[in-house]
Amino acid sequence: MSARRRLFVAASAAVMATSSLIAAFPLATLTLAALPGARVLTAEQQALALEGMPATEREHTAALWADHAHVLPVAYVRAYFALERDEDGSERLVQVGGYDVGPADSALRLPNVKTAGSGTGGRYDMYMSVSIWRTSNSGVYEWGIETYCDWRKGANGADALCNQVEDTISTSWAGDLYLYSDSGSGRCSSLLTPIYMYRSDMTPNEGVGWSYKEWMSVQPACFLEDYARFAAYIRESTWKNRTDNVASQYLHSKGGTAEYTLSYKDASFTIVPANSNQWSAAAYTSFTH
Fold first, then answer.
1. How far apart are CA 109 and CA 118, in angstroms?
2. What is the CA angle 235-240-243, rounded to 5?
3. Fewer beta carbons under 10 A from the terminal one: N or C of the chain?
4. Which residues, other chains included, contact 59 with Cβ-Cβ below 8 Å and sequence gap of 6+?
5. What are 114's strand-pairing partners?
6. Angstrom distance (rounded) from CA 73 to CA 51
7. Which segments of the chain does DSSP mark as H helices, in order?
8. Has residue 12 been placed in a domain?
9. Residue 77 lies in a domain
10. In the beta sheet, which residues pair with residue 261?
């Protein structure tokens, strides 16, 4: 029987009054109207979500959500993962906490970067989030999906071995919407240098992925990236008033097997081959379109 080390994140209540959060992140009344049957994030939910983000995510997302004439936030989810090791040396990521603002949300509970894992010293190894917003494009219905992730620095970080196998961040959606545009970006904070990312996988009307190396090499050392994000804009010509899933997956390769293929179908992922040299983490939410 394998003895497993697992870290747990205890969900915490909001750490300050909602009014003070909204004051810290002022959000005007949205001017982009909601569509029939669609749920949107309230100003209160947006403010609480912003409070719990890492600084590099919050700075970007706060500016995006503040564009009330062109952006209507509709869903947001984040998840925390810990690296679990077995006696046989195998490793995997397990989810140890998270927060979802989606159609089923009825409360504003928020384990954030500062308070997550309060029972274990705030320890977790990876953070991942997915946000969805609708834009105001005329004559077409468009949604933006952004995936953001970063590793905690330290012994359980990605790995600073300078392996030659790239990591991939992917998003898949149900509903047969087509990909209109996408982009990726990231940064190695130790060197204040952008990381190189490129579109590596794509299935029409299903999903798209971006790949990159999670480290930057400056001999004789390697430096872990600070964060990576990518956004995909999807479109359709008619309002269907149906709710579908969006899922994002982070695939980390430790080395060894150098090749894999990703495919997508209805907000799901298929990885071939899947092996012990890969760790994966996933987060999902839903949107009405």
1. 14
2. 85
3. N
4. none
5. none
6. 16
7. 18-24, 43-51, 55-65
8. no
9. yes
10. 272
Residue 19: left (phi > 0), alpha (psi -120 to 50), or beta?
Answer: alpha
Side chain identity at residue 121, one-letter code: G
Q: Which residue has the tokens 């080395």?
A: 255
Tens digit of pLDDT for each residue in 210-229? 988 877 777 777 777 778 89
Rounded Cα distance, 120 and 204, in Å: 43
Contacts for 11 with CB less than 8 Å, ≥ 6 apart: 97, 99, 109, 111
First to last CA, the chain: 47
> What integer pLDDT is reported at residue 276 of this predicted model?
61
Would residue 51 be called left, alpha or beta, if left means φ above 0 and alpha means ψ between -120 and 50 degrees?
alpha
In angstroms, rounded to a whole number, what is the distance separating the alpha carbons of residues 227 and 283? 16
> What strands lie across the sheet with 227-236, from one edge to the other?
91-101, 71-85, 126-135, 141-151, 227-236, 178-188, 193-194
Rg (CA), the chain: 19
Number of domains in the chain: 1
Q: Is 275 exposed, middle or buried (0-12, 13-18, 19+ CB in 10 A)?
A: exposed
Reduce the DSSP state of residue 135 to 3 states and report it: strand
Residue 98 CA to residue 82 CA, distance in Å, equals 12
Residue 30 belongs to a domain: yes
Question: In this structure, is residue 97 part of a structural domain?
Answer: yes
Show the domain range for 86: 18-288
151-195 tens-digit pLDDT: 776 555 555 567 777 888 999 999 999 999 999 888 876 677 788
Residue 63, both tokens: 């500016």
Q: How many CA atoms lie within 13 A of 229 on its CB side?
A: 19
Non-local CB neighbours of 258 within 8 Å, separated by 6+ positions: 164, 165
